[in-house]
Design brief:
With 154 residues, this protein is of the alpha+beta class. Helices cover 42% and strands 20% of the residues. It has a six-stranded mixed β-sheet with strand order 3-4-2-1-6-5. Helix 1 runs antiparallel to helix 2. The termini are close together. The relative contact order is 0.17.
């Protein structure tokens, strides 16, 4: 499984989401400041609601920008079999006889990427409970909560 391709795929997905969020922000800003949302009476809250939406969109744009920056600055180094798992690791695990793959990354948690082998790889952000359980462990470790066996780290 090519980790470099996975990281590039993750960057591409986050950049696409960032561009969509920027476009949505522009639309929300226009809705908040446009003539169509000018209050017609004291009970008309369209402008206020549009400004809340624009603020939320701005927060999302900033979060994506920080995530992209964190990915650019992350060292997705190669891990050896005995290395402790940390951010940047590609981890192969087994649970109930099923092989599962995770990429520990500083951003993009929850995304599911397709590896060059066709296998699904779930991105785990640093705050994810499973990422915290995996961090500091080594290959061959068996976690009991969740019950999962660490097979390989790369």
């Amino acid at each position: 499984m090519n980790k470099t391709l996975l990281v590039e795929s993750l960057r591409t997905v986050l950049k696409q989401r960032y561009e969509r969020a920027l476009a949505a922000l522009a639309g929300a800003h226009e809705a908040a400041t446009g003539a169509d949302t000018k209050a017609e009476n004291k009970y008309d809250t369209r402008g206020l609601e549009a400004s809340y939406l624009a603020a939320g969109q701005a927060d999302q744009v900033e979060e994506l920008r920080r995530g992209i920056s964190a990915l650019e600055n992350c060292d997705f180094r190669d891990f050896d079999f005995d290395d402790e798992i940390g951010i940047g690791a590609l981890v192969e695990t087994e649970k109930d006889g099923e092989l599962l793959h995770y990429l520990l990354a500083p951003a993009g948690g929850g995304l599911v990427l397709t590896a060059d082998t066709g296998e699904a790889v779930t991105v785990l952000g640093p705050g994810a409970p499973l990422a915290m359980a995996l961090t500091g462990k080594t290959s061959g470790t068996i976690l009991t909560d969740p019950e999962i066996a660490l097979l390989e780290v790369s």
